[in-house]
Amino acid sequence: MKRILIAPDSFKECLTATQVAFAISKGIKRVIPEAKIISIPFADGGEGTVDALVTVTEGKRIITSAVDALNRPIRSFFGVLGNGKTAVIEMAAASGIELLTPEERNPLITSTFGTGLLLKAAMEAGFTQIIIGIGGSATNDGGAGMAQALGFRLLDKNGDPIGPGGGSLGELHSIDQSNVHPLLRKVKITVASDVRNPLSGPSGATRVYGPQKGATPEMLDVLEKNLIHFAHILHQEFEINISELPGTGAAGGLGAGLMVFCNAKIVSGFELICQLTQLENQIKKAMLVFTAEGKIDSQTALGKTISGVAQLAKKHKVPVIALAGIVIDDLTELYSQGVTSVFPIGNEPMSLEESKARAEELLSGTSERVMRLALSLSEK
Q1: Is the pTM of this model over 0.85?
Q2: Which fold has domain 49-269?
């Protein structure tokens, strides 16, 4: 029986990694109905992280209350891995950019408070091991809101709590830890993130990711200044200098906040899922690997899902097909890493909005055409 592995990332603001894998499998089945298909959906820590990990470990979802990045009440969730011992959270389920309209996105006021509520819910449900994915954020508050939800009091020079969002961090004067949630020191928190940006500077949270969260050039100056001040206060209060540590700039500085306030460890999201799913072993047994993400460009080769999958497959001489909504730039490095060929899924001129609306159909159609070609070549 032909064994095919599907290991895709999500298509941002369109399909989760699980949905992408399902769409690809439909196309394959049209050509080889008897194919043995193994799906291992990936996620970068953003939307779909919980579903991806719950799916591959045969775990479950738990519904809970939280607030969005503008502190409006919402119904949210966290997952439980198949071992029944580990909770998994995606900050995007509370503080995510996709929960806000483009007009609502303003990192001066958006907060990670809802992410803190998800952590609190998981701790109070009895979990002492928690994985948190931190992609897809709408925030630039350094994890201050998350800390406030867990009982840290972030105070101005008058002893009053500062407001929400990155715009208030400049007012921070001291941090009161007397009412921190008692369970926080009993849990082990692992941050799944492949973002290596530092907290501040030209490649930091604000300058690189602020614009996509709604920050104007004027806002960027304020947010950058405030994050630098925030790091100074954290150094003063906790004796931890996080300004230039890799990964602290992830999710608008939530990486830094989790390291300092929660004693969390940042690990590669890709490597974590590899361990949980035994990805390399699955690749070794496959005749062909499909992977995918919304956009393939020169950045894809710098540690993203497709790059990681390709390098593992190259070790075992398994061909890799990469699908994407958009393909741009020189892909020479990706090919050298082990990608056999790259296919954009669009089959006619269409707008970005239309391609997103038809993404599942386009993925199925492209994977079907690729499989027909692969089957024809294998029979010669």
Answers
A1: yes
A2: Glycerate kinase, domain 2 (3.90.1510)
Q: What's the helix, strand, coil split of the chain in %, to 5?
A: 45, 20, 35
Quickly count: other Cβ atoms within 10 Å of residue 336's Cβ.
Answer: 12
Residue 261 φ/ψ, nearest 5 degrees:
-75, -30
pLDDT tens-digit profile of 209-246?
999 999 999 999 999 999 999 999 999 999 999 987 89
Q: Coil, strand, or helix at residue 279?
A: helix
32, 2 contact by CB (below 8 A):
yes
Cα–Cα distances in Å, from 325 out to 11, 106, 241, 347, 355? Answer: 8, 28, 40, 10, 7
| Domain ranges for the chain | 3-41+278-378, 49-269
Residue 104 bridge partners (DSSP):
none
Architecture of domain 3-41+278-378: 3-Layer(aba) Sandwich (3.40)
